[in-house]
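User: I'm putting together a teaching handout on how multi-component assemblies are represented. Below are the sequence lines for each component of a complex, exactly as they appear in our records. Could you produce the 3D structure of the whole assembly as structure tokens, so the students can see both representations side by side? Please keep the chain order the same as the input.
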Amino acid sequence: MDESVVTEHADQGTVGFVGAGRIGEPMVERLCAGGHRVLLFARRPEVRARLSQLGAQPVAEAVQLAAADVVVSCLYSDRQILDVLPGIVSALRPGAVLVSHTTGSPATLERLGGQGIGIVDAPFSGSAEAVRAGRLTVYLGADDEYLPTARGIVGSYADPVIIAGGRGSALRVKLLNNLLFAAISQITLSGLAAGRKLGVTEKALLGALAVSSGGSAAARYIDAVGDSGRYVASVTPFLRKDIAACAEVAADLGVDLSALLAAASAGPLKIEAGGSGDRAADLEDQ
Amino acid sequence: MDESVVTEHADQGTVGFVGAGRIGEPMVERLCAGGHRVLLFARRPEVRARLSQLGAQPVAEAVQLAAADVVVSCLYSDRQILDVLPGIVSALRPGAVLVSHTTGSPATLERLGGQGIGIVDAPFSGSAEAVRAGRLTVYLGADDEYLPTARGIVGSYADPVIIAGGRGSALRVKLLNNLLFAAISQITLSGLAAGRKLGVTEKALLGALAVSSGGSAAARYIDAVGDSGRYVASVTPFLRKDIAACAEVAADLGVDLSALLAAASAGPLKIEAGGSGDRAADLEDQ
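Assistant: Of course. Below is the structure of the complete assembly, with chains in the same order as your input.
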């Protein structure tokens, strides 16, 4: 991107970006393609090199992102948020916006403070391919004054953008969705197992559920991957991580979600809350 | 319908019908409109009068329906099946087909015997309005040789027609769907209640579920009726009856569905298995 293009789109403001991993990198690609001036903090030289070629401007220190009007964070965990973001938030100018894509605890974002700063929670659902296609599902929790800015920025790579409510509400919505997804997966897998005992094929039951009251997104996903065995193999690691995170957040918020957590943990999927270790594997992405 | 029309459609065979209640009466309307010769056994004079005007031919005794090529039964309960159908089945000619729309136990249909008769289970989901629009959802359990005939007849008022497998399988599929619907309703209502505690509105959560992994037909229905309170009021009587029936069928078939029954019974909906009394209220429909 040459200087003239940057100037031309200056009215869209400058975006600071941290967390250019598996999902974050294509976000930066889309922001650059959309004409935004992007300041990038990334530790890995190959990521800096790739995104520089698209017009992003690497900075040496995370705090330099505070020169931007909007900072987008796609960090992997609450721990990373508390490592990286406080310095940026305290240096942001009043009226600036921080959009955090991390699925974690609302309490973590509260700990960032940010008086006069718009802190927007924006957990997502979808793959790197979805980001590249501009089809990432993003949930937005933003106070009214910051919503248009946040929606405009994530609109570069997200559709649908689901407005969950005020600050912190998108993380709560994502938490509840994840619990329901796990619980409905368990129930549906139990139903398929019962069907096998009754001589009903998985294909027949899933075909019926697709047009019936007992149907769900989980049932559609099982049908799409082929059978319950493949589904269990593919979703168990993700759901185990999600449910462990839900348990932590519930404790953090001081709200009793034990009934939902029990429903999410009981069934053919071995995803009891409390598992760990999975997180470390993906940290390299950030 | 005049005599010439009946003759013209003679190749579609004669249909006997019993159970012309709230759902069954519009089925007869559609069968007559489709050009079928319909023999009707109905106790209520006003039903006989209405359907005679459309071309149906009332018979004095149920056993006279055995003159038909296909008998369609839309009785309310297994008890009614055992009262009414054995005499018809034993008088049917070999190769004839009985289509039973009752949601009940596969064991009840087995008790009918019917050597050389195609006994087809065809439980449905939908309203009288759906029947009149030709949009009833019907599940078919039929051995291969009887499937085309059964599908042709129910096609007069059903779309989609879901092939569940061989004889008895559609009742098993419906049973499992009903259990999953109740369990997913419970989970989703629990999620909405948790959301309220977390400051998330029902509208926001239901809007997110509509495009997310935790979504389900149950969530769509809750959104459609407006809120969880109205949903609980509208579905509780139906689900209580369904779950009681599921518990009976599980016992009848000697299969352990206790985990699914527990999931269907636990939650904001008060639908513990074992309720009764609701059945009597609707018997007048038949």
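A couple of points students might notice: The CA atoms of residues 138 and 161 of chain A lie 5 Å apart. The longest strand of chain A covers residues 158-165.
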